[in-house]
Every structure is written in C-alpha cells, then in structure tokens.
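Cross-posting from the chemistry board since nobody answered there.

I work mostly on the small-molecule side, so proteins are not my area. We synthesized adenosine-5'-triphosphate and want a rough idea of how it might sit in this target. Sequence and SMILES are below. Is it possible to get a predicted 3D structure of the two together?
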Amino acid sequence: MPESLLDKLNDEQRAAVLTTDPHVRIKAGPGSGKTRVVVARAWYLVSQRGIDPARILAITFTNKAANELKERLAAAGVGPSEGEAGHGGGGQVLAKTFHGLGCYFLRKAASTTPGLGINSRFRVLDAEQSERLIRRAIEEVDLEQLQAAGQGGERDMKGRPDGAASVTTHGLATPLANTDVLQLAQRLADLFSSVKTGMAAIGFHDDDRAIEEAVKRGVDGMDGSRGKSLGDKPQLPSRFESAAVAARWYRGMVQKYFCMYRRLLLRNNAVDFSDLICLPVRLLDQHPELVAAWRARFDHILVDEFQDTDPAQYKLVRQLKGPTTSLFVVGDPDQAIYGWRGAEVSNMSIYLPRDFPDTKTHMLSINYRSDPAIVKAADRVLCANGPSDLYTPAVPARAPAAGRGVATTLHVYPDHKDEAYHIARLIRGWMESGEMRAETAAPAAAAPLLAAAAAATAATRAAAGQRQRSARAGAEAAGEERGAARQASGNPAAAAPREPRWREVAVLYRNRDLSRPLEEAFTRSGIPFTVVGGQPFWQYKEIADAVAYMHVLLDPLRCDVFLERIINEPKRSVGDKSLLSMRDAARAAGMPLSQLIFGDCVRPEGATPPPRPPIEALPRGPADLAALAPGIGPDSPLKAVKLTKAAAQGLQELRGLVLFLRDEALRGTRMGGLLQACLTLSGYEAVLKALEVEGKGRKLTAKSKKDVSQDASERLERLETLTEFAGDPDSWIADDSFADDAGGLAASAAAASGSGGAAARDAGLLGVARFLEHAALVTGELGDAKGDRNAVRLSTLHAAKGLEFERVFIVGLEDSILPSPRSPMDEERRLFYVGLTRAKDQLFVSYCKVGAL
Ligand SMILES: Nc1ncnc2c1ncn2[C@@H]1O[C@H](COP(=O)(O)OP(=O)(O)OP(=O)(O)O)[C@@H](O)[C@H]1O
C-alpha cells in the first residue's frame, strides 16, 4: 500500500502532496480527493522525508473526518494501529478536530497554568448543557437585580416575585415568561460564542472594556449580517423612547448575562465549545512559554476544510505554527456554508496569502465523483455567485453513464406530501426492478441476515420515535425480500435475493421540517431510512440525564448545572420549592449548591474508600440508599434549610447514591458498571419499566399520538444502547485528552486497581472522565450514530457535507426554504452546490407549488 500511495494520485494531487513549499493552500473542488491528498501528504512526509509522525499535527473539522483520517493514516502505516490510544505520543500523527485539539491543549495547560479557574478535570459542556447554564445565568442576574431593587417576598422557581416573572433593569420591568427565557438563552448561546470568538481573535480577553466592546460587536453583528434584528429579541420593553436606548439596554443586559455565565462556568469547573478554542488562544496570547513549547512540537500542520475555520481557529493555527513550521491547508471556498456560525471564508481566500506571502496555491479540479451533467449543473449554480480568485471549472473524470437515464431532472409537485410520495415510489421502483440492487446475490445463508438488517433498520427508527409503525414496515420489507427470493427460483441456493442498495440514495433538504412528509411516505412504503442530523442521540432526555448523573459522580462538589438536572429525576420529592430554598442557603453560605449538598458526605479523589460491603449488604434500590450517607451534620448550612420530610428523605437518598457510586468509582469499577448501577439504584430504570407496563393505551399528551408505554420502552432501549456503549471502551477511548495527563485521575485509577497492576482504561473516575469527554465532543454530530446502516439517508444539506451517494434528491427548492431568506444568497448558492455535488449518478431536484407543509 505505502509504495502505491503516490501512484494513486493524479498529477494535480501529486504536485500538491510532493510540494516543498513552506506554506501551501490547496483549493480542492468537490469529489477531487481532499482526504486522499491529506493522507498522502502525511504519509509522504513520514516515509519519504523522514519526518517523525509525532511532529505532524493534522486538524479536521468533524470527529468523523478525524476518524477517517486516522484510519487511512493507519492503513498507510503512519497512524496508531488498532487499539492504541491516538494521543500523538510515541511517534504518531496528532490528528484532532479543532475542538478535540483545544480540549487536549487545555487539559495539559490547566494543570500547569495558574489563574485559569478550572482544573485539568474540567468538563466540556455540549450545546444543550451550555444553554441550561445560560438560563441559570439569566435567572441569577434577574435575582440580583430584584434584590438590588429591594423586592423580596414570595418567589417563584426562579426567585422572582411569585407569578410575575420579570427582568428588572434600571427601574424598567419587562414581563419575561419562561418560554422567553428559553428563547433568550438560545439566542445568547450564539451571541456568547461570537463574543468569545471575537475577543479571542483580537486578543482582548478579560477586561470589562473588551467585553463591552465584544458584546457590542456581537449584538450589532447579529442585527446585520446574520439576518436577525433587535426587534426579534424577546420582549424588548416597548417603553424605550428610541431604538438606540433599547439597544443600549439590551447590550447592558447581555453583558451582565455574559459575565454571570462565565462565573457559572468556573463554578461548574466547565468550559463550553467556544472555550475549547478561545481559552487556548488566550493562554497562548498570555504565556509565551506555552507558545514556545507548542511551536517546538510540530514541523508540519495540516488543516482540512480550511474554508470553514472561524477567526479564533485561524488564530490558533497561527499561534501553534512556528517560523519554520510548514502549513498545508486544504479546502474549498465554494463549499463554505458555515458563515452563520462565524466561519470566515476569507481565512482561506484572503488572510492566509496575506499573512504568509510565500503561500503557494494548488488547484484540484478533477471531479471523480459525479456524472459530467451533474458537474456542469453544479458549476452553473456557482457561476451565479460571480468571479472568485480561487475558482476553476471542475473537470469531470467520468464519462456519462450509459443506460442510466438522464442525470439531472427537475420536478414540480403540488405540495410536499405529493413530493414525498413520488420520491418514495421512485425509490421502491428502483429496488423492486433490481436496478439498485447489489451486483451479486447475497449468499443463501445471508437471507435471514437480510431480514435482520431490515428489522434492525426499523428498530433504529424506533429510536427516533416511530417504533411500532417502522417495525411493521421493516418486517414487511423483509417479508417482501423473502417472497421475492422464493419466487425467483425453486432452487434454495438461488433463492438468495440481491440486497437493495438503500444507502446509496439520499434525500436532502434545507430545513429539518421537510423530513416529516418524507418520513411518513417512507414508513408507509416500507423504505428503511435514517434521519441524519435529526435529534442527536446524546440529547435525548434520558441520555442527557444519565450523563448528568455521571458528571455529578465525577466532581460532586462543582456540578450545579448537572445536579439541578437530576436532583428530582426520577421524582424523589425534591421539588422546585426545596431547590429554591437550598439555592438560597448555598448563596448565603457562599458555596455552590453541590457543595452544600455533598460537601460533608463524598470522599475526595485520592481517598481510599472502605472495602465494598458484602453482597447481601449492597443496596438494591432507592429505599436502601438513605442509610448509606451520614446524616446532615449540625454545622452544615444544609441543616438550616426547611425541607419537607419527604424532600429531606429524597435528598438523603441522593446523597447515599452519589456516595456509594463514587466509592465504587474509587474502587476502580468500570464505566459501564457504574452507569448500570446508577440507573438501577436511582430507580430511573424502574420508573420507566413501570410506565412501560402501566402506560398502555394512555397518550403522552393530549396532542401527541404517542403512547406512554411505547415512549417508555423507547427510552429504555436508548438507555440500554448507552450502557452497552459505555461497556465497550474501545468505542470511546481511542482519542481522549487524558492520555498523557490525567491530572491525578490516572494515578487514582491505578491505585484503585490494587497490587500495582494497570487499571483498565475505563476504570474509576478516569473512565468516567474519558467517557464524558467523548460524549461532549461528539454530541452534536451523532444524528446518525454510525452512518453504516443500509438505509436511505434523509439529511439536511449542511449535514450531507463530505458525503456521496449514487442518487440524490434535493427537495423544497422554494423561495422561502431554499434559498432561505435568513442567509446571504451567495452562501445559499454554495449550500445548494454542496448538495448537488453529493450525487454520483443521478440528481433529482424538486419544488412544490404550495410550499407550506
Ligand atoms: N486520483 C484519484 N483517482 C481515482 N479516484 C479518486 C482520485 N482521487 C479521489 N478519488 C475518488 O474521488 C471520490 C471523491 O473523493 P473525496 O471524497 O476525497 O472528495 P472530496 O474532495 O473530499 O470531496 P467533497 O469536498 O465534495 O466532499 C472518492 O471516491 C475518491 O476515492
């Protein structure tokens, strides 16, 4: 393989790979072999130029791309072999996403750099967790303002005067319902991210002036270029005399929320996704010794999908790049589709050649993927964006496909239901006619497997909430397979059907809403499908709850955002009123809520836990837990909190649970075991099991058609998937940032394993920390957990980036949908271009006369 790697490149690709220029920019059109070039470059540097692999840093945009890169490097002999931790030590290329790299950097830096406010066991909050914390920040600011205004008395859950949720500022009270807090938090999440990125990019990190300025820029940026307006913001007081005053007020509030949010992050020993880039940038700005150490580490930095970098990411690359480090970036400005989240295509088109004037540009223009008609159609869409320096017309490598019909067609339908129905019919037709079936018949023994595959597809669909219907459809599909096979021949050996290639078909759309009619039509037609970019697995409530329990277990004294999530989940009588009283007590005592609750009962990290009780004394459920924790001491501020008897009992059970599980972790119990024990002992599983039995025939809500029992069994299924996953560390430890420096966790895990032996990689608190890091870093990318099922892909255009399919449908080409009025037209064209160029053989684009769903 290694010798032939260069032989597999075309002239353009080879010239790029073999370059000796220090700064190289590769403009790679769709289907032109970007990944092939990055892999070949790393291989070439190591095997032909004798570079130590550990002196190469490869940065990708998604975990999927990072994994693919690592696999291909391993296959080419320059990556970690199977089972090895890919941490870049021991002569391995360090291949990370930007966020993975930031996390790796911060874990190392947090233990040696004072003043960061987090330790090296910091946790990474995913988008949903950050939003939760922002909601808490809004509530805290609100409360501070109320207290400053001298308003007390009865309060609701958020500490506001009962029944009158309000944001009070400068004497102006504005009704702000809980739904508005939710909305505001969503908007602030985007805004805070752009504020942080802005501050990092210009090198202002901490002082109030810098924050004020960055907030102003962020707010103004949202108003203009991102298509949102101040008027969009929830419940702006109507009595401001002018828009300018309203804007000033809003900025002032945003700044307060921002500062409070940062305080809460530290209190939770947490960073959010933007921090993973912005904190390393800040540390490198402020600590020249870190810059020197990191720059000395790499001779070569390779960056994939460079067009999607934001200003802070680009700055990080420059900070890590020493004067003699070579920079090799690959990207396609014509596929830049993330402007809405801060990506700057100018990093590739303008700033790189400006910052490194000797930058050499290579063009990869040969498209190996698509039929020439598709290449031509896509190019025409792009040309409408006007001239660009880095544009070269794509050259199709393939000849037009013979006998496959027209490569590109436009369809018009009356409405989206009809559109979905016709697409389903077409796809079924292809499979039934044998046109899209595997070339060779599956071996006879595989027939049951085929049925299993169809049923498995249906079962996976169940995870998205359509279990019974899909299962029926899957079973029908499988039945049809068997029927067709029986008919085909009386010979049992020849009865094996050729497998339909469902996975080679994709339906792409601009908005997620458009998947609904498609899902319905496909379910009715028995077409196995998977929704990419649907609800990510990690964001299902029960999964997020289980993860929150593990966070509490890992760091029980700094975990408020997770503790509040599970304090009454499952119900243990610790309701809103109790929580509010405890929050007050914690505030008065100047400590986090988590410390108030667990401060006197959990053992610190390095402590030796008592021996495990004999089997008969082990707890079996919530009722056994209370006795495990010591009673609340007379000096504890918790003692003064007035709780009902039931709430006090519930709290004591939670204390017992956390103490027990943490002791188990300190004894070296492995991650999968801890998770299972938590779900059993907390009663979480039992509650769902009871609902599964008792909820038959009851609807979840008046509106929802879903049955309580069905919902419970789907949740249980997902929890089962999670525990299985947790019990298989190879699937989540490959690339964690604890590899070199576990901040004491490795030592405690080793100690826990006893007799000086090496602890399992997933043992104890280190195992928990590794698991949680994986969960946080992949959380946004897991719409379609594995992506390897044989099913039609339903996907947003954004989520289809980097993928390819034989036949692609792009639906909903209507003015209000694609192009979206909320995004600049040139970016919408690029998005369309990305969609078009996913197709290898056939492309179907459609719009409806009545666009509304
Ligand atoms: N030199 C080559 N000879 C033959 N096939 C090639 C060559 N280079 C790339 N390919 C094939 O072209 C296809 C597209 O490559 P790849 O997926 O790397 O494209 P890409 O540049 O990442 O595309 P996009 O940006 O559209 O996602 C792959 O199937 C790949 O194997």
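Reply from a structural biologist on the board:
Welcome over. Reading the output above for you: The chain has four domains: 5-81+91-118+278-364, 123-150+172-268, 401-435+500-536+785-852, 538-731+758-778. Residues 438 and 499 are 5 Å apart (CA to CA). Happy to explain the token format if needed.
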